[in-house]
Amino acid sequence: MGIFCATGPAGATDLRFSASSYGTPGLIDMPTGSPWPDGMLGLSSVLTKDMQKYTLTFQITPRIFGSFRYSILNGYDAGENRYDRSFDFGYLLMEETQYRPALSIGLRDFGGTGIYGSEYIAATKTFGDQLTLTGGIGWGRLASYGGFTNPLGIIDDSFETRPIQDVSINNTGRLDIKQWFHGDAAFFGGVEYRFNPRLTLKAEYSSDAYERETLKMGFDHKTPFNASLTYGFKNGAEVSVYALHGSEIGIRGSIPITPQKPKYPSGIEEAPPTLMPRQTQAALSWDANSVRQKNSSLSIALKDQGLTLEGITIEGDTATVRFVNGRYPAEAQALGRAARVLANQLPADITTFRLEAMANGVTTSRTTLRRSDLESLEYDLDGSWRSFARADFEDAAHSEAAPIAGIYPKFNWRITPYLDPSLFDPDNPVRADFGVQAAASLEPARGLVFSAAVRQPVAGNLDTSTRPSNSVLPHVRTDSAEYAKQSDLEIKYLTAEYFFRPGKNLYGRATVGYLETMYGGVSGEVLWKPVNGPLALGAELNYVKKRDFDQMFGFQDYDIVTGHASAYYDFGGGYLGQLDVGRYLAGDYGATFSVDREFDNGFRVGAFFTLTDVSFDDFGEGSFDKGIRFSVPVDWLTGAATQGGYGTTIRPVVRDGGARLDVRNRLYDVVRNSHTSELEDRWGKFWR
């Protein structure tokens, strides 16, 4: 049993950022007014005799946190276990100062069945390094003990009555807004005392009477007082033991995750080549006639840095170079390495470098650097910012670099392990398959890519799901377990893709084949994305058929035309918004709203929800599609200059409404890495 919740900065626990048994900022069961550090991420798990809670919480901004919780309540439904999913939200109304407390408002279980449904306002004040006091007022479940008439009734009499809540599974996911801050209210409070940097005592007066647990699970509520003792480890992890309402003993533990603090902040890759004087041996022996050959000295020097030279043109004092970054997660680092190689290889009279970045065979941007700036800023203390300010960024719809002979065809292959998880489904908190994947790609010409991946499961339990689909919609996703049950060796994807540039700021993609696990067909996409702008617009159209359950070459009878118009916006500070409007796989029409936070190192956390013309009743359990997603780059974990990473999406329940095709290489994420906003965020890697 473990909990992975953020309790403070790595290296030390912090009294003000402690976590409750709900995996959110709090005491034991009660919330607090203090948020966690900005960007903190964690999973939490708590264990008592008849209950388990697993919570993922993310401090989205300095003022906002969001949580997803998966709870297992033994014998809750007439002797059967309840697997409950819910969401929490909190907002910091007022920061703590020397004379006033931190003040927060929050919602518990606003997107689940409502078993834990409650609202609160909490204030927290610290006194020195050891003592913290919290007091607050709660509604809903947090007013089930010691309740009194709602003071908000002075605004409107309707606040004094809380509608009866349906906490059945059929009500999962509905937003019962009419209940929020309605009905009786009650006070709660508590204290935290830190004996030393490792040991913390918490005590609280709880306004939660555990009415449902008492009625359905035999819980014995003897007292409103709870207490806990917490030990903090050096890396920020915690283990807690607490006494709950005089009748239960619980265990909690924690492991904080700080996305903005990778284990190797500067990386462990080899140092870049040092800039040499302009009259180097390489520059003096420059052969303009052989530069466009595949194995020229320039091509070899770039290859040593993980870059592939695709084209070069020299006119006057300017060299235009087209290259592919095959190594570095940060495109800014690839630009820096390429610029150093050019400075060490080209004759002294070449004073300007125009670097054209490529992705999937198309040029995505052109960065212009002056050789003199490289030489003067290499050891400048403010060299990163100054070099970015002096660089110019523009579109490169039509490459101005003449192609290198013999580059195509390209062939790549790899064999890797894979992990395919299904987390927190309605019957099991963890399902996953582990196996081996063989993938290969062939590029016979620029922009044309043939790709395939074959998987062989070795171990796992994805095929153990026994829940049949009860969907009244076409089963476009709800029978996904059948693909695990009826397949052994499986074709993950088998596609032909063509990437092209229709014009300035425009990108295109056409894909045909077995597009994903469940569907094959034809997919086309166009994207408008200026290099220097925050807004992008796209459109995608697909015709697909449902694949056979064995994931080989056959198809089922179901086919559909689906597609979306999309808008993407970079709000700055790492916050990305996306809106997709169109037709989904079950034939329903609607929109998906997404928000992601991407840290400068590539670590990404986001959330989304979809509303379509499918009614909540027809959608079934969950009411509408929603979830959270995250991706962790390899270099965040290892420090190695390696592209790729691991990511997954967590949905409370998989249903058929709002289901979208999972086609690979959608254009926005393909092209944005070399655009100005992304380059600026990671320009600190330019000199690495």
Give the proportion of residues in helices. Answer: 10-25%
Report strand %. 35-45%
Question: How many runs of DSSP E, i.e. beta strands?
Answer: 30
| Strand order in the sheet with the most strands | 18-19-20-21-22-23-24-25-26-27-28-29-30
Integer count of domains: 3
Shape: globular
Mean pLDDT: 91
Instruction: Kindly name the structural category.
Output: mainly beta
* CATH topology-level fold name of the largest domain: Porin
Query: Counting H and I runs of at least 4 residues, what is the number of helices?
Result: 11
Low-confidence stretches: 1-16
How far is the N terminus from the C terminus? Answer: 41 Å
User: Main β-sheet, in a few words?
Assistant: 13 strands, antiparallel
